[in-house]
Amino acid sequence: MNETPRFDAYRHTTPNAPMHHRADPFDAAVPPIYQTSLFLFDNYKELEDVFAGRSKKPIYSRGDNPTVRMLERKITEMEGAEEARAFSSGMGAIAAAVLAFVGPGDRIVTVRHVYSDAFRFFEKVLKRFGVIIDYIDGTDSEAMIAALPGARLAYLENPTSMVFELQDLTAIAEAARRHGVVTMVDNSWATPLYQNPLALGIDLVIHAASKYLGGHSDTVAGLVAGSKAHIDQINSEIYPYTGAKLAPFEAWLVLRNLETLPFRMRHHHEAGLEVASWLNAHGDVTHVMHPALYDHPGKHTFSGFGGLFSFEVSNRIDVADFVDALRLIRIGVSWGGPESLVVPAKAALSISPETNVFARFGVSDRTIRLNVGLHAAKDIIADLDQALSAAGR
Ligand SMILES: Cc1ncc(COP(=O)(O)O)c(C=O)c1O
């Protein structure tokens, strides 16, 4: 009899099919949450088959859980990868992916404005274990490529998430392959809809699914996708042992929220561009850091833009007064959800200098990061306008 194996039931039937078009043993419109730590076995042989790799039945949810597996398969398809793993946070994904490839004496090449907690992971954790970190101006492809020979890993973020610097992923990926350097890109800002690093030759893509993929400020989650060989390395070296596994309910939330990703991203893209160009024309804004406004080869890897970007205000504006005058736009450090948010770099600069990426690599205290949420662009602009007027000296 040619039956579909029981534990392949959560295979997607069509790569981009909505969730309810996918196989489910009971044709559930929305997949179940397998809220269990444990899976049971009928006999010795069934258990032995799992350990011997002859069966894919899950045994314990720190390793595999069917709801989490659905999300892993979904991101595999969206990124054009062969495999993926889900973690309990973006940082869990970053830490596991990096630790799977580096050891004492290895060198990592990264971008100088890398996400602040990735920077702290490099500085506070990896350096203790003898890993060397090179921070390079990622916009300078020649400098990035010159730093690659002898490195073990290039850790990229296109664009970086405070000053939105770009890297030329195609050129860096090509050079990294020649020098045997593993490449990873944090793709949280563009999402798989607007940038596909694997298609450009990058080895591994990382997502803070807490941002656009989750998209509703209701979950913290991380994902890593890439070739089977690279994900196998993460599986065999790190994944089950550091324990940062995504929980089934959190995976279910991300899966559900992915259903609206194209609609949300279209809004973030369009409203983000409208607000960025309004700010760019404002007399009290000296600089807008939005990739659409740059002339850099790294820009051409995007088919659309996220709605998160920064701008710098003139000396006439008191940053604290401006932030306090906002009404619709709230103050908050995360991004990618429905809320429109600001984070003033000035506040972040008060973190102790040795672990402050903004202080170390020169982010101006007049920089303000703006998350264009799901509000109408005209409402966000009206709020920025009244707050800039109120904060003028
Ligand atoms: C660009 C970027 N990458 C990674 C992360 C880490 O994600 P998480 O907060 O889920 O650990 C963040 C979080 O702010 C981020 O902004």
Automatic annotation (TrEMBL):
- Compositional bias (Basic and acidic residues) at which positions? 1-11
Record's GO cellular component terms? cytoplasm
SUPFAM superfamilies attached here?
A: PLP-dependent transferases
Task: For this entry, list what GO says about its biological process.
Answer: transsulfuration
Q: Which GO terms describe its molecular function?
A: carbon-sulfur lyase activity; pyridoxal phosphate binding
Q: Where is this region: Disordered?
A: 1-22
Does Zinc count among this protein's keywords? no
**Which Pfam family, any one, appears in the UniProt record?**
Cys_Met_Meta_PP
Against InterPro entries, the record matches this protein to: Cys/Met-Metab_PyrdxlP-dep_enz (IPR000277), PyrdxlP-dep_Trfase (IPR015424), PyrdxlP-dep_Trfase_major (IPR015421), PyrdxlP-dep_Trfase_small (IPR015422)
The Swiss-Prot or TrEMBL record lists the needed cofactor(s) as: pyridoxal 5'-phosphate
As stated in the Swiss-Prot or TrEMBL entry, residues carrying the post-translational modification N6-(pyridoxal phosphate)lysine are K211
Keywords in alphabetical order: Lyase, Pyridoxal phosphate
Keyword check for Lyase? yes
Task: Write out the similarity annotation.
Answer: Belongs to the trans-sulfuration enzymes family.
| The protein, known as | Cystathionine beta-lyase/cystathionine gamma-synthase
Taxonomic classification, please?
Bacteria, Pseudomonadati, Pseudomonadota, Alphaproteobacteria, Hyphomicrobiales
